[in-house]
Amino acid sequence: MGFPTIYIPRYNGTPIPVVDRESGELAAILTDPKNFPDDPAFPQVSVLPDNVEIGLTTDDPRFNVVLGGFFVENTGFGYTNPIIEIFDRDREEPNGEAVAVVRQGRIVNVEIINTGTGFKRLPEVIINDPAGFGSVIFPVLNLIPREAGENPAFKPGEKPIEAIFCQSRDLKNLY
């Protein structure tokens, strides 16, 4: 399977795309924070169609794909008691649990209660509230290494890369 090339200006490493094997949808990009310059003022990120060998698939048996966080692109307004639903588009059922943090009627953060498990693609995030509207929230996925006893394909000593990439409007890395 070939993977896209990820280009981040001034990044001193190789970003690793994580894609769904069936759809080819990009689910995450793994980076190492040490490889960013000291002043990574929201670098542009380019995803280029390619056929390179560097990458991972969301069905890699060494990793479990879970919710790692949320990016609130728009806080919306008028929210009183929003309910966040996380819908796994592949299993066609809820997967994970989160609650909205509301300040003055705006969703300013989303806290994860249950990370869910086994995501193949980005889940759909649904906000239900009788009064509020306009909030736009994107999920961020993490890859968590499975334990050696749980999966013989896992090599002891492998460590996850702790970085979050969230593709937003204009493809800017916001962190």
Residues in helices, as a percent range? under 10%
Taking pLDDT < 50 over at least 5 consecutive residues as the criterion, the unreliable ranges are 151-165, 167-175
**Biggest β-sheet, characterized?**
3 strands, mixed
The domain count comes to 2
For the termini, the CA-CA separation is 30 Å
Order of helices and strands: EEEEEEEEEEEE
Helix/strand-derived class?
mainly beta
User: Which term fits the overall shape?
Assistant: globular
Average pLDDT: 85
Number of E-state strands: 12
- Total helices: the number is 0
Strand content: 35-45%
- What is the gyration radius calculated from CA atoms? 17 Å
**Largest beta sheet: what is the strand line-up?**
3-2-5
Describe this structure in words.
By secondary structure, this protein is mainly β. The protein has two domains: 3-59 and 156-171, no CATH class; 63-145. The chain has strands at residues 3-7, 16-19, 26-30, 46-52, 56-57, 63-74, 83-88, 93-94, 97-103, 106-114, 124-128, 136-145. A three-stranded mixed beta sheet has the order 3-2-5, with no helix packed on it. β2 (16-19) and β3 form a beta hairpin.
